[in-house]
Write a structure and sequence with these properties.
The complex is a heterodimer of chains A (317) and B (324). Helix content of chain A is 74%, strand content 0%. Chain A folds into 2 domains: 47 residues, no CATH class; 220 residues, MetI-like fold (Orthogonal Bundle), CATH 1.10.3720.10. Chain B has one domain: Orthogonal Bundle (MetI-like fold). Helix content of chain B is 76%, strand content 0%. The chains are: A mainly alpha (317), B mainly alpha (324). Chains A and B meet through helix 1, helix 6, helix 7, helix 11 and helix 12 of A and helix 6, helix 7, helix 11, helix 12 and helix 13 of B.
């Protein structure tokens, strides 16, 4: 077990190194001279200030030297300086946005799980009856609505039509006010409701799996009430695999919030990523990619370890 | 009596089991599912009208009629007109055509050809080949999908446009960029970048199990070539989970294509695409004044994604009856 964890932990920095190399090459081959991004398009790339700036940024050196420098700084926690926001370290820039996105993802995940897990548990008991396919289909319908349609429709329904959530400025409910602000409702719903389908399916499969086990038959035969069996034996065992994937889906949501954040004007990591791509602010987008990739790798590892911890039958060689 | 009928039914099913192939059997089971059938019909209608938009609609996608600006749906403009007086129905169908071409091309090249080949190699040869393919899959999938396609399309597009300009300037070929070839190529490339991993992992898993079976041993012992073992003996046995995965993957492919055009890195205006239309009209004031501008492309996109998802769900039941 420890062997396995250590081996996996060694793989994470290596994975980050490969990801950073690939993204680094993509951006260096990509369009736009960083100097022109900073000084403006009208500037003469050969002028003295451009040459000086190039030297300062270290982009006059060969590509491989640049990469080694970047990787060394990155693993020391220095992500460089933003091209767009001069003088702002990338680390501070993305840390603030990361926190916003994490809160939003947490709210969305809460919605998905609170609706999805009981629903999945319920329809597993209704296997073969009409409730089962109906609820699965409804969840798929919600999942299939394009987010760019879902968000305005939700806004219209909740804010304008019924006035459940009051106006905020020109665009209703837009902006960001933290986890306990009313303005989080629409974005969290738009990200959380499509995710219900995932949890319903997982919970349904896992509950069906548990209900077939011998110990459930034993519990029935020794005369326990079905309610007690459901709560004490079935639910607790079937929710285990779901808990293990929670960390993974939290990491996934951070990357997937691009559309919602862009529409709702939420200063999160997805919106920053889109802006940086269009501004050609390469240090920022590189840092975002690497940090999210790192999150993914660690969440993946965490899920595997959790899996082994909660279920002692699983062994890793 | 009831039991008798039931028995006859099973008897009939058993005889059909013997006569028909695996895929045929699954298909006949699929046809019995009304929902799946409805999805197939919806997809067929949407795609066919997308392909034949030239014959269906009397308008072109850039035809502007300034006397007919922001008309609500009526007899001459079935889905109304937009702010430039263009027919929404025509533009939606052209958008469907673009989505159709892009997602099918990406699925065929990335999801099927690349994914299957990688999965077969990875599972059959094992060792270093397996490690390299699996690790590169892990690298790609560690970047969130939308980031990945964002990065690829943003960085690769200008280089490809430069390259195509060079071709246009030095050869007799004209209108490559105006025709949208570059857009198609860049979008496909970014969709392929993540599309292959799912199928590769799936095929690998199947092959790892299948290659230990006796019929593969037998094939190897009589000297069947590696190519034939891979594509004629192993692949057909892994086909049913593959069909399910590909069908379910189509939904997310369509979503990714619409996302790319929506963010401004996919199909470029004035060429119509569902993503661009949703970007132009995806706000609350449009819902209040011209809802058809958003709901026309939105509903079509929704129906396409939903049909693929439900179809995938039904196919899963059909191919893996044990789960039901």
């Amino acid at each position: 077990m420890w062997n396995y964890i250590i081996r996996r932990l060694f793989w994470v920095p290596f994975l980050l190194l490969v990801v950073s190399f690939v993204t680094f090459l993509l951006f260096r081959m990509g369009p736009g001279d960083p100097v022109l991004v900073i000084l403006g398009n009208k500037y003469d790339p050969q002028s003295q200030s451009a040459v000086n700036l190039r030297e300062e940024l270290g982009i006059d050196k060969p590509l491989m030297v640049q990469f080694v420098n970047y990787a060394r700084d990155f693993f020391q926690g220095d992500f460089g300086e933003s091209y767009r926001y001069r003088g702002q370290p990338v680390r501070d820039l993305i840390a603030a946005k990361m926190w916003v996105s994490a809160q939003l993802s947490l709210a969305a995940l809460l919605i998905s799980t609170i609706i999805g897990i009981p629903l999945g548990f319920f329809i597993a008991h209704k296997q073969g009856k009409w409730q089962d396919p109906t609820i699965v289909t409804i969840c798929l319908v919600v999942m299939s609505i394009p987010v760019m349609v879902f968000v305005p429709v939700l806004l219209w329904l909740l804010c304008l039509k019924n006035l459940w959530i009051p106006f905020w400025g020109g665009i209703p409910c837009s902006g960001w006010g933290g986890l306990f602000d009313q303005r989080i409702i629409v974005p969290a719903l738009s990200m959380g409701l499509p995710g219900v389908a995932v949890f319903v399916r997982l919970m349904r499969a896992s509950t069906l799996d548990v209900m077939k086990q011998d110990y459930i038959v034993t519990a029935h035969s020794k005369g326990l009430s079905p309610f007690v069996i459901d709560i004490r034996h079935v639910f607790r065992n079937s929710v285990i695999p779901i808990i293990t994937i929670l960390s993974f889906s939290l990491a996934g949501l951070i990357g997937g919030a691009i559309i919602t954040e862009t529409i709702m004007g939420i200063p999160g990591i997805g919106r920053l990523a889109v802006q940086s791509v269009f501004d050609r602010d390469y240090p920022v987008i590189m840092a975002i990619t690497l940090v999210t990739a790192g999150f993914f790798a660690i969440a993946n590892l965490f899920a595997d370890i959790m899996y082994a911890l909660v279920d002692p039958r699983i062994r890793y060689g | 009596m009831k039991l008798m009928i039931h028995d006859e039914k099973t008897e009939k099913e058993i005889t059909t089991f013997k006569n028909e192939g695996h895929i045929h059997r699954a298909f006949s089971r699929l046809v019995k599912k009304k929902l799946a059938l409805a999805c197939l019909v919806i997809l067929a209608i949407i795609y066919l009208s997308g392909i034949s938009v030239d014959f269906i609609s009397p308008y072109g996608y850039t035809d502007q009629d300034y006397t007919q600006i922001r008309q609500s749906p009526n007899s001459s403009h079935w889905l109304g007109t937009d702010r430039a007086g263009r027919d929404v129905f025509t533009r939606v169908l052209w958008g469907v055509q673009n989505t159709l071409i892009l997602t099918f091309v990406s699925m065929l090249t990335g999801g099927l050809v690349l994914g299957i080949t990688m999965g077969l190699f990875s599972g059959y040869f094992g060792g270093y080949v397996d490690a390299v393919i699996q690790r590169s899959g892990e690298v790609v999938s560690s970047i969130p999908t939308f980031f990945l396609i964002l990065i690829i399309s943003a960085t690769v597009r200008p280089r490809i446009i430069e390259f195509v300009r060079l071709i246009e300037d030095n050869t007799v070929l004209e209108g490559l960029i105006r025709g949208g070839i570059v857009d198609y190529f860049v979008i496909s490339l970014s969709l392929v970048s993540f599309g292959w991993i799912g199928t590769a992992r799936l095929v690998r898993g199947q092959i790892l199990y299948l290659k230990e079976t006796q019929f593969i041993d037998a094939a190897r012992s009589i000297g069947v070539s590696t190519f034939n073992i891979l594509f004629r003996h192993l692949l057909p046995n892994a086909i049913s989970p593959l069909i399910v995965t590909v069908t379910m993957g189509m939904g997310s492919m369509i979503g990714a294509e619409i996302f790319l055009s929506w963010i401004g890195l996919g199909i470029q205006p004035p060429r119509p695409s569902l993503g661009v239309m949703l970007w132009e009209s995806g706000n609350i004031s449009v819902i209040r004044t011209e809802p058809w501008l958003m709901f026309a492309p939105g509903t079509v996109a929704f129906l396409m994604v939903l049909s693929w998802n439900l179809l995938g769900d039904a196919l899963n039941d059909v191919f893996n009856p044990r789960t039901y």
